[in-house]
């Protein structure tokens, strides 16, 4: 039997498991993300660890240049010192406007006006209940979308440009950094991503701007909320999902003509614009309480979402004064009028077209045969009905299916002495009044100032509607005439399709 001294004489066997694990962690921490993803499962098996534990240890071992207090990339997310003196807002906005239009060709002046106010609003995110996305579009490539993103990045609050990102990276970046996210090449990676679409949509209003994911904390799977509340610019060719576009202010760009000139982008634009960013931060800090107390809203235009999107810009324009209220009123009217009916859901488009058939028929009949409606719809130009399915025209069954959600059904009634399936004008008009949007007319500066004092969404009946022989077909829609500066209304005659009532 050995005594204690005998054990001391045996050769030492070193326990290397801990040393080997640390060495493996250091090795894995030096790999690129793609290489680590390839090796992580086998490495976890070799070490006898759960993959989630290995992920945490490797993440701790990775070198990084971060702000120690907030975990933000020190070189990418800016901590801005506001300007030392008070700033005059209108002249600052003009400087921003000039800089935005210096490097690209906007579709209209209204587009650059919207972009200017949107940049200012990124410094006031604690003020807004709702903040729209900025959607930069062009019909084709080489129109300056990426260039405009760089300019906005140099002006907006904590701008951060990415050309691709996972859904998880988006909401985790927002939670950690509170940036202004600028997403480029959206047509190549965003439109078909269902999960990302939900995340982008969720960030439209502050109260609902969160997603929940389960993450492992101390070995337990815990539901964890992540904020999605941040300013966001999306740039790409063509359109995005309808649900996202309805949450956006639309900015159009055009390809430059040979005779048009734009300034070349300075290499150090972001550094050059530091003064402007600091001045915006100072103006926002000095104006935040005033803007937060405003109840100004754009006039009703038949599209509540559009009205919501423009409300923050409307208040910014009112705070700036000068030409800005008139500019944003023109932009608001223009975006309402430019909404293309072809982008509406098929049912809404058809409801609009059938309502027009009733409104334009001689004698304004109270019913039209289903077969006649089908024939008339197929005959409409610039509509999809003639080649509705695989190049074939729509049928009465198609009409019935699309009208059913609106509570409109064909009925067998007498028409010209014969029983036939008909649609009733009363049902079509009632549904059209509810679901087909009217358009806004441009609002003069005087009307604009009158409207801005009125916070009402359900206003009083002192507003008269502009004359129109056919309100559904009119390209300009409803005008707004205020008989009382403190009131607005959408009250219309009982029969909105009778031209005599509108006179």
Would you give an account of this structure?
By secondary structure, the chain is an alpha/beta fold. It has four domains: 17-69; 89-255 and 269-293, Rossmann fold (3-Layer(aba) Sandwich); 300-339 and 439-503, no CATH class; 342-435, Arc Repressor Mutant, subunit A (Orthogonal Bundle). Helix content is 44%, strand content 13%. The chain has 21 helices and 13 strands. Strand 5 (210-217) and strand 6 (220-227) form a beta hairpin. The longest helix is centred in the middle third of the chain and has 19 residues, at 274-292.
CATH-defined fold name of the largest domain = Rossmann fold
Number of strand elements: 13
Largest sheet: 6 strands, mixed
The residue-averaged pLDDT reads: 80
Proportion in β-strands: 5-15%
Shape: globular
Report the structural category. alpha/beta
The end-to-end distance, rounded to whole angstroms, is 118 Å
Q: Helices, strands, pairings?
A:
Layout: H1 4-8, H2 17-29, H3 33-47, H4 51-61, H5 89-102, E1 105-106, H6 109-121, E2 133-138, H7 145-155, E3 159-162, H8 167-177, E4 180-183, H9 186-189, H10 194-202, E5 210-217, E6 220-227, E7 232-237, H11 242-245, E8 248-254, H12 269-272, H13 274-292, H14 304-320, H15 324-337, H16 346-360, E9 367-369, H17 370-378, H18 396-403, E10 411-415, E11 418-424, H19 425-435, H20 445-452, E12 463-465, E13 480-482, H21 499-502
Parallel strand pairs: 2-7, 2-8, 3-4, 4-7
Antiparallel strand pairs: 1-8, 5-6, 9-11, 10-11, 12-13
